[in-house]
Design goal:
The complex is a heterodimer. Chain A has a domain of 92 residues. In chain A, 34% of the residues lie in helices and 23% in strands. Chain A is built from twelve helices and twelve strands. Chain A has an eight-stranded mixed beta sheet, with helices on both faces. In chain A, a hairpin with a 2-residue loop joins β4 and β5. In chain A, α4 crosses α6, α6 runs parallel beside α7 and α10 runs parallel beside α12. Chain A is globular and about 65 Å long. The two termini of chain A are 42 Å apart. Chain B has ten helices and ten strands. The longest helix of chain B is centred in the last third of the chain and has 17 residues. In chain B, the strands form two sheets. A six-stranded mixed beta sheet of chain B has the order 6-7-8-3-9-10, with helices on both faces. In chain B, strands 2-1-4-5 form a four-stranded antiparallel beta sheet, with helices on one face. Chain B is 37% helix and 24% strand. Chain B starts with a strand and ends in a 23-residue tail after the last helix. Chain B is α/β, with parallel strands linked by helices. The chains are: A alpha/beta, B alpha/beta. Chains A and B meet through α6, α7, α8 and α10 of A and α6, α7, α8, α9 and α10 of B.
Chain lengths: 331, 273
């Protein structure tokens, strides 16, 4: 399978209070057609910025380096009609649907706008397709919904409208940025099921951004874990939880309480997550890592292949298989 | 449990016009106990919390805290202050629940001045330092404005501020929901430590069943204003009896979990939110 999306050594800097601050550093990932890739991290890890860079939606004044290729085309070089086509092929779903819809326009206006602008479809046909797309995401009576305003719909329903809207242009890649974080758990399960089903039926590729390791593991084939603007581990999702390669991934998994048992103390990670521009020399995670040595603090490790995954840790090989063990003793 | 109850609510009901948000809720919290109120948006769990702290007046029912009735709104500042000394609340969002112009020292000292008239300036300063240490804030963080602090550090201030009133009950209204995973674990450990070291009781309002499992002993599950299931936390989560609790339990992502479109996908959510 050749990659649909290829990101190579992506770096990005944003202007903050007059100076450029690094938000991404050496991010590489690839997604094949129909594949679901998870991007997991805490606040400031750069997961949303990665998606925004791919969508060509970085804030103004941002500087990006590295290569982003979609279907072999250089995304940075797209403009005019080429960029417009790209926006039809790569769709984005955000965390808070209410912040991304015009509150004074109806659902119908919102849904058909992209179809008419990007695909030149006439209004009647566009509305028919919108009703069909609503049915696909489990919303009956589409015709009535098209006449409603965003405030008349619940968060879960509105998020499904966003997904239906994005489907209209038949994108080949969906960038979903915490699409279920603001939803109730039962609604989250439904929205995830819909995304998963659509992906399988239509062969859409999915970049799924979340802070929830378990959720990424459940819906993605592969998952990358980000910390301080870099990817620290990429691995088959099924192995991420029980057989992690990076100490950060291991501690993320054990810091979360589980529904099956309470523990006397959670294995909390000391300190707080840092952004790329605050990261120290050497390994960005070293100040919080139980395994850090002098060499970890001296040089930033490159990302390297190990056991079918990729990991950015100088001690990854010698720690192989010991990460979960130690954490168990902790708990 | 035959322990002394620090909080008891009976037949609690709240109607907003025609909408009944809370419908006949009973709950009891023993001293040093920890009770979870679980439910999704619109279940009425936050309205219950607001009635307990006195931010909403119940339409019907009684609330007794520390042996004193608080079913009707407090009359006068003195009564309000006394109630504040019994039950405190920590909100979800530490970015909007603190005064941006007040450092942690000022925020905590303000509560001490109100609730501990017996303390002089020196005693208050000592208590601020003690609370700072209890919640894990250093000298520099205690003097900083909230703007300069992270979400986890701000939530520590909110907890210190709640504890400054020496309450018997602290209501944690989704207090760890907005925190990063690694910070959430620190705050959950902190809450467990505080419970171990003091006589405090918790009421945790949450939709996160893993958090509920970690820091509560008993749970009530609310759905559309009513309690649908109650019992020991471990028992209810391991063997949920009601279909709604079973659905909640099944919706939590875990290794091997496959999201499923529920039976209500096309029906219940069709109503206007």
């Amino acid at each position: 399978m050749s990659a649909l999306l290829e990101v190579e050594h992506l770096a990005a800097r944003l202007p903050v209070e007059g100076e450029l601050r690094t938000v991404l550093h050496d991010v590489s990932l690839s997604i094949a057609a129909g594949e679901a890739v998870g991007l997991v991290g805490e606040s400031g890890s750069g997961k949303s910025m990665t998606a925004r860079a791919v969508a060509r939606l970085l804030p103004s004044g941002a500087q990006a380096d590295g290569a982003i290729r979609f279907d072999g085309k250089d995304v940075a070089a797209l403009k005019g009609g080429g960029l417009r086509d790209y926006r039809g092929e790569v769709a984005m779903v955000f965390q808070d649907p209410r912040a991304h819809v015009n509150p004074v326009r109806t659902i119908g206006d919102f849904m058909v706008e992209a179809l008419r602008a990007l695909r030149g479809v006439d209004r009647g046909t566009a509305r028919k397709r919108a009703v069909a797309a609503l049915a696909d995401v489990g919303i009956p009576e589409g015709e009535r919904r098209l006449g409603q305003y965003p405030h008349e719909l619940s968060g879960g329903l509105l998020q499904r409208v966003m997904i239906a809207t994005m489907l209209l242009t038949e994108p080949r890649l969906v960038l979903a940025d915490e699409p279920t974080t603001a939803l109730d758990v039962t609604t989250q399960a439904e929205v995830m099921a819909i995304l998963d089903e659509l992906r399988r039926e239509r062969g859409m590729a999915l970049l799924f951004i979340t802070h929830d390791l378990e959720l990424a593991g459940a819906v993605c084939d592969r998952t990358s874990v980000m910390y301080a603007g870099s990817i620290v581990e990429t691995r088959e999702s099924a192995k991420l939880h029980d057989d992690p390669l990076h100490p950060y991934t291991a501690s993320l998994a054990t810091a979360r309480p589980t529904i099956d048992a309470s523990v006397r103390r959670l294995a909390a990670i000391p300190g707080r997550p840092v952004s790329a521009f605050e990261a120290p020399e050497g390994c960005a995670f070293a100040p919080r890592c139980a395994y850090a040595q002098d060499r970890c603090r001296a040089t930033r490790p490159p990302i390297e292949a190990l056991d079918g995954g990729l990991v950015r840790c100088a001690r990854a090989e010698e720690l192989r298989g010991r990460l979960t063990e130690k954490v168990v003793n902790h708990g | 449990m035959a322990d002394e109850l620090v909080l008891e609510a009976t037949g609690l009901r709240k109607a907003f016009g025609d909408v009944v948000a809370v419908d006949g809720v009973d709950l009891a919290v023993p001293r040093r106990g920890s009770l979870a109120i679980v439910g999704e948006s619109g279940s009425g769990k936050t309205t219950v919390a607001k009635m307990i702290v006195g931010l909403e007046a119940p339409t019907a029912g009684t609330i007794v805290a520390c042996g004193r009735d608080r079913s009707a709104p407090a009359r006068g500042a003195k009564e309000r202050r006394r109630r504040g000394g019994e039950v405190q609340i920590v909100f979800q969002d530490p970015y909007s629940s603190l005064d941006p112009r007040h450092s942690a020292v000022q925020a905590v000292d303000e509560v001490l001045r109100l609730h501990r008239p017996d303390m002089d300036k020196g005693a208050r300063a000592a208590r601020v330092a003690e609370l700072g240490e209890l919640v894990g804030l250093d000298e520099r963080q205690l003097r900083a404005r909230p703007r300069a602090l992270s979400g986890g550090q701000r939530q520590r201030i909110a907890i210190a501020r709640a504890l400054a009133a020496d309450p018997q009950v602290v209501i944690l209204d989704e207090s760890v929901a907005a925190l990063d995973v690694s910070i959430q674990a620190q705050i959950l450990n902190l809450l467990a430590d505080i419970r171990e070291r003091t006589d405090i009781s918790y009421i945790l309002i949450s939709h996160d069943l893993a958090v509920v499992r970690q820091i509560t002993d008993e749970v009530i599950v609310m759905h559309r204003g009513k309690v649908v299931e109650r019992g020991g936390t471990a028992d209810v989560l391991d063997h949920p009896r009601q279909p709604y609790t079973q659905l909640l339990r099944a919706s939590v992502p875990r290794p091997g979990w496959k999201p499923a479109r529920g039976p209500r996908a096309t029906t219940e959510e069709g109503s206007v939110a």
